[in-house]
Design goal:
104 residues, mainly alpha, 84% helix
């Protein structure tokens, strides 16, 4: 035979479905449900905001990387148009040292 304590434990393990709750308590159950939906909506909005910030940061970094690569390519192109091999080599050395300094 099941004792009173066992019944209480069973009731806590398997709560009564909302359809069988006394109408006096139904309002509080709806309030809890609304609170849970609100928390879920806030969590979703927080995740979307985080995703937006991460994507914006990635796009900004890609733009900076693109600008640096374009500037490096332009500098090397200008170096290649200089007359004389020594002048071109010096220009390339200066361009690569500048690129390393700006990368760090």
């Amino acid at each position: 035979m099941i004792g009173a304590q066992d019944r209480r434990d069973t009731m806590h393990a398997f709560p009564t479905p909302l359809s069988r709750i006394d109408p006096a308590h139904l309002g509080s159950a709806r309030g809890v449900r609304a609170l849970l939906w609100s928390l879920a909506a806030l969590a979703t909005l927080g995740l979307l905001l985080s995703l937006t910030l991460v994507v914006q940061n990635i796009v900004r970094q890609a733009g900076l990387r693109h600008a640096a690569t374009a500037a490096q390519t332009d500098a090397l192109w200008r170096c290649d148009t200089l007359p004389g091999r020594d002048a071109r080599d010096d220009c390339r050395r200066m361009a690569s040292s500048t690129a390393r300094r700006t990368a760090n």
